[in-house]
Amino acid sequence: MAPTESKRNQLLTRLRNFYECLGYTRFSMRRFEEYGLYLENKSFLKSENVLTFTNPDGKLMALKPDVTLSIVKHARNERAGLERVYYQESVYSYSSVNREVTEIEQMGVEAMGDVDGYVVSEVVRLALESLRAIGLPCVLDISHMGFTAGLLDSAGLSSEQQETALKLIRRKNAHELEAYLTGQQIATKFAQRIVQMTQLAGPFDQVFPAAQKLSANKQTATALDELKALYDTLDGTAEALRLDLSMLNELDYYNGIVFQGYVQGAPRAVLSGGRYDLLMRRFGKAADGIGFAVYLDELSRTLSDRRALDADVLVLYQSGDDQKALHRAVFGLAAQDLRVITRKGEKPEELKAGKILRFENGALKEVR
Amino acid sequence: MFTVALPKGRLENKVCELFSACGFDCGGVQADDRRLVSFDQGGGVRYLHVKPSDVAIYVERGAVDVGVCGKDILLEGENDVYELMDLGFGKCRMCVAAPVGFREDFTSPLRVATKFPGIAKAYYAGKSREIDIIKLNGSIELAPILGLSDVIVDLVETGTTLKQNDLEIVETVLPVSARLIANKASMKFKTADIKRLTDALGQKGETV
Questions:
Q1: CA angle A229, A26, A293 (to 5 degrees)
Q2: In B, which residues are within 8 Å of A139 by CB distance?
Q3: How close, in Å, is residue B59 to chain A by CA atoms?
């Protein structure tokens, strides 16, 4: 048994190589940004609890709670071409439940510029492959914000009504959604369509025809066309792809394809992303953007390296033993890719080793 | 293995009855049974009997696939789960109650005793009313009697407890009933199991 690099690091290396191979370059940044950046875009963040401090100039700064905002802020303001970056950065948040500051490592990919159908398929494929690299059964749910927005628009919902409806759709809460829309005097024909949206989840082939039946206007039709084109492009490489039209990101930032990844054994989404042209506009950028982040903290349990043994070999020695011979013996074992621990005296009760060797008269002897 | 969290106490009998009627035999409720885990041998389902306020946490964290709990728990915990069905029983109301004849003093913050600080906060924030929350874990009705609080925000089923303590309902915050909730990842990986359950519960619900 060889001492292995932690599963987590293996995954990170694999992902980095993979992103590099497709022309993405590493983007590094400072640990903090001006707090104003996050204040203006609070609803973009996964958690609203941002850690702040005042710098010597009296400016309120924040430890980065998110990477995408920083990348978008620093992105070049050009529509032509495409800027491909990936990052591996720590982000910080405050957990109100644990009353504790947490540092989370995040990895992600962003493509900004002229985002066409091919680029969308490239980024979604990267997301799929990132999930697959985790090595567990996985699912990538895809959806399209244009479909939702179009459907809600066609029903004539106000922005306040939309917000409530979105919240209920995300929870697949059909019963309350129906009651709410009826209470808001939304025509039954439109209300029914919106309610049905919560049930549109499953294998692409099965769900897509049902989604087509709900299509209400040009916006929803365009959204479905994009989804179909993406699915056709990825066909054959994407058993893990599912359609889930109840899965939504923030309407203020995301406009096109959005997606979320799950792996068996992790209770929450481990990957999330989508097309965020609207976010780019908020920063005054002419370019479009699409990207995703992998939440390594959600994977910590599934990527656990808990091992049954503390070491492959335990070497026991006595004071007065030949130090040079012991040194050589131990490094000899380590050179064979074995995990070695040395102890002076007897074997400690709690230590579990595959093999116990005693160093006697300049040689190693196995202890039974 | 498909795992279901069931709430102990108030809802337990009703939930077990409904599940059994739908072909999900969770063993029923025996008074002296202290086991926290039971099995449905035929269906390969495991049932966990947990404190109602913990059900949503079990589901959110993926310790179980689905669970049954009151809407009050979901609103208070703001857990990230799918809320699949309103089971239509365990009906009661989240109410503001005060001593009979209570007149609110709008010149000072309202003192609110409750087990549900999140719901109370959101409710009064919606009315732009400043409040002072007193979080208690039981016998909430005592608080206004002793002058510890002006009003209480609590679940009211029949209103008997309120009446016996000279309290009355002032406002209804929202109606509450039992909900079927599911873990987000389970919804992707145990789709068939969850569908079997919701279909059965749905059919049963229509005939009730």
A1: 50
A2: 188-189
A3: 9
